């Protein structure tokens, strides 16, 4: 019987919107339905007008990853359609104009970790456990997480994390630079809200273009990246929020 509870709770905190994954019985496993619910929530008027967005789960799990019960059904044709459908979630999150904060408690595995990596900033509770177990299942992280992890920590550490598939703590994630701060388990969402609130107070256009310029810098020559900086500055200097 379908649950009456929404798969994603949209909580309005003024300038900040919190999207809470709400599939606790399955540790917030990212089924295609949950991914689609997140995409729908991102299209909601609340999220559209938010200055910053926080993604979170439950105390026990941010998310235990892709729904493993759906994996055997995935033929190459379905996988191709998946990336055009609910599987576009991770790139949609990565390209949001607003800053995003992942507030992580408990398990943050597989696609759950990939969702957190698609956010701009990660705050972790002491209970958080990160990991990419895909290779052990005969597949690989393929929701942008492999690419983002290599760019975040370099190929040597990315290989250790992905090939070994071992879970690691919030403290280790912090040491690797994947997490901005580790806080007591019960305070993750409040701290994330504080950080997101600060971000939401910054000029929106500057945030959006700077995010895009940083992403472009990671994949451009120095010359192209410098040009993007200068063109973005020229455009931003005329936008609302620039000093007059
Ligand atoms: N997909 C679908 N269901 C999942 C899931 C996932 N990724 N992760 C957990 N669940 C479900 C379990 O099947 C179980 O459902 P049930 O109660 O109906 O049997 C429920 O969530 C609770 O999980 P359980 O394994 O009993 O909890 P645990 O505390 O003993 O272990 C984990 C937690 C996260 C270590 C374990 O569930 C796990 O290894 N999950 C798979 C993680 C994974 O491989 N993710 C990447 C997929 S590509």
How would you describe this structure to a colleague?
The model has no long low-confidence stretch (mean pLDDT 95). This protein folds into two domains: 8-200, 2-enoyl-CoA Hydratase, Chain A, domain 1, CATH 3.90.226.10; 204-236, no CATH class. The protein has helices spanning 32-42, 45-48, 76-84, 89-94, 110-118, 145-153, 155-164, 170-175, 188-200, 204-217, 222-236, and strands at residues 8-13, 16-21, 52-56, 61-63, 100-104, 107-109, 121-125, 129-131, 168-169, 181-183. By secondary structure, the protein is of the alpha/beta class. Bound molecules: coenzyme A. The site of coenzyme A (COA) has 15 residues, from strand 6. Coenzyme A (COA) is lined by residues 26-27, 29, 64-69, 107, 109-110, 133-134, 137.
SSE blueprint and pairings:
Elements: E1 8-13, E2 16-21, H1 32-42, H2 45-48, E3 52-56, E4 61-63, H3 76-84, H4 89-94, E5 100-104, E6 107-109, H5 110-118, E7 121-125, E8 129-131, H6 145-153, H7 155-164, E9 168-169, H8 170-175, E10 181-183, H9 188-200, H10 204-217, H11 222-236
The structure holds coenzyme A (COA).
Coenzyme A binds near residues 64, 65, 68 and 110.
